[in-house]
Amino acid sequence: MQEQITKIKQQAKEEIEKAESLKSLNDMRVKYLGKKGELTLILKGMGALTPEERPKIGSLINSAKDEVEQLIQEKEQKFKEEEINKKLKEETIDITLPSTKIKRGSKHPINRVIEEIEDLFVSMGYDVEVGPELETDEFCFERLNLPKGHPARDMQDSFYITNEYLLRTQTSAVQARTMLANEEKTPIRMICAGKTYRREDDATHSHQFGQVEGLVIDKKENNVSLADLKGTLEVFVKRLIGDNLSLRFRPSYFPFTEPSYEVDVSCFKCGGKGCSLCKQTGWIEILGAGIVHPNVLKMNGYDPEKFGGFAFGTGLDRLAMFKYGITDMRYLYTNDVRFLNQFDRKD
User: Fold this and answer.
1) Could you tell me which residues are beta bridge partners of residue 290?
2) Sign of torsion over alpha carbons 41, 44, 48, 49
3) CB–CB of 168/158 below 8 Å?
4) DSSP calls for 66-120
5) Angle ∠(299,145,141) on CA atoms, nearest 5
6) CB 329 within 8 A of CB 204
7) What is the mean pLDDT of the chain?
């Protein structure tokens, strides 16, 4: 049996030296050291030996197994080093060659406008609030003085998911949520910018568009008035579009404000003289605003006898179009890198 062990060990050594791949090494490991390997079978046959022979033969077998395992590991390490060296040689990069230019996009014009608006209003003491895009009918309409069946709902052709849930048609829903969440009924100065959805699709409208809403609520003794709204909007519009603009307030109707106004700016292209952009009027409609309706205050936990304030809202897409001279709203959603790259240069 001792001679058999020596013979198997020598045979294993020769085969390991001739091995040409990791697979063949693994086959040898199974052949000699596996459960049915040649050295393992000898170990299982030790029951036929005398008690005096067993320790000696057992020691020889274990020594042979350790030696074969060591030879396999050394050969395996050699294969791995050869493979690594081969890869390093094949994949060598000549760092003296000019690199391939990677095409880069730029920040989207809508995101640029949002960040600029948020920076401005945060500097004026406003908080930035967020809300869900899948909204309930209650917050999207009812808490904004638009009960079921109200004709003003027809102005917002909506995407309803169920009878009660819809994709929000306006970020004003966040105003209602903010008022309700303010349990201590402290003053509010907030803006919310985000996506809204309506069933519209043409050169100046999209089924998805961005809005920014602003809300100020304070005690009546602090006299938050239309003058404060006008001053706020002047700072806002001049910062976003241009310093040499004038604002014009026209009476309008919104269910959630009373009185309500459409706000126009003097045409930044012709300076108010009249052109194709302003349709020869000298003015461009830019946003809606007004004094918060007493019903809205009451439905959202504020006593209209003690509190008042103003609200305003405008489309982010329209602001981006005015700011950057974009002629078709649909360009904002094509994700064309050639289009987006322009705005790094413009800013």
Assistant:
1) 260, 311
2) positive
3) no
4) HHHHHHHHHHHHHHHHHHHHHHHHHT---TTSPPPPPP-----HHHHHHHHHHHH
5) 100
6) yes
7) 85
N- to C-terminal Cα distance for the chain?
88
C-alpha 332/C-alpha 321 separation (Å) is 9
Quick one: pLDDT band at residue 82, thresholds 50, 70, 90?
confident
Q: Identify the residue whose tokens are 């009027």.
A: 281
Structure tokens at 207: 């089924």
Name residue, tokens 């052949």.
31
C-alpha span between 171 and 191 (Å, rounded): 9
* Nearest in space to 113 (alpha carbons), one of 341, 322, 327: 322
CA dist 308 and 291 (Å) reads 8
Q: Which are the contacts of 139, defined by CB distance < 8 A and separation ≥ 6? A: 131, 173, 176, 177
- CB hemisphere CA count around 171 (13 angstroms): 26
**pLDDT mean over 185-214:** 85
Beta-bridge mates of residue 284:
265
127 φ/ψ angles, rounded to the nearest 5 degrees: -100, 145
Give the residues across from 266 on adjacent strands: 283
How big is the CA angle at 322 (ends 316 and 332), to the nearest 5 degrees?
55
Closest of 14, 9, 13, 19 to residue 39, by C-alpha: 9
89 vs 86: CA distance, rounded Å: 5
- For 82, phi then psi, to 5°, come to -65, -40
Specify the 3-state DSSP secondary structure of 262. Answer: strand
From CA 288, how far away is CA 183, in angstroms rounded? 28
Rounded-to-integer distance, Cα 62 and Cα 39, Å: 9
Q: Quote the pTM value.
A: 0.66
Half-sphere exposure of 142 (CA within 13 A, CB side): 8
Residue predicted with more confidence, 212 or 318: 212
| pLDDT tens-digit readout, 117-157 | 999 999 999 999 999 999 999 999 999 998 888 887 777 77
For 305-322, the pLDDT digits (tens) are: 999 999 999 999 888 888
